[in-house]
Amino acid sequence: MIGFIIAIIAGYCTPMIEASAARPVADAIGKWVKIEENEMRLLGFMLAMVLAGVLGALFESGNTFWLILGGTLGYFGTRIVAAGKAATTKTPEE
Questions:
Q1: Cα separation, 89 vs 44, whole angstroms
Q2: Which among 5, 4, 46, 1 is positioned nearest to 22, based on CA atoms?
Q3: What was the pLDDT predicted at 49?
Q4: What are the Cα distances from residue 48, in Å, to 3, 66, 80, 92?
């Protein structure tokens, strides 16, 4: 369960990781691998999931499925909450 929660947090923090970790990593490996600008968010998500996997292993909590599900829910969490609110809120015109 702790691994799942760690993965949710890591997925949610992807935009912050993109700025602080993904760009330096992209610069460091840029000599060998070209990272496009539109791939920075993906690189940040990958780094977040590696960190979540390591922490999950250290805490001996969570398997691969729950880490991936937690990371995905965390990454799309704000959109999922907004969609849920929109689905449950009725406008006066309805």
A1: 34
A2: 46
A3: 92
A4: 13, 14, 20, 42
Q: If you compute the radius of gyration of the chain from its CA atoms, what whole number of angstroms results?
A: 16
Calculate the CA 79 to chain-centre distance: 13
CB environment 40-78: b (16+ within 10 A), e (fewer) = beebbbbbbbebbbebbeeeebbeeebbbebbbebbeee
Amino acid at 44: G
Per-residue pLDDT tens listing for the chain (94 residues): 888 899 899 999 888 888 889 889 998 998 899 988 889 999 999 999 999 989 988 888 778 888 889 999 999 988 888 888 888 886 666 5
The model's pTM: 0.78
Residue 5 buriedness (CB in 10 A; 0-12 / 13-18 / 19+): middle
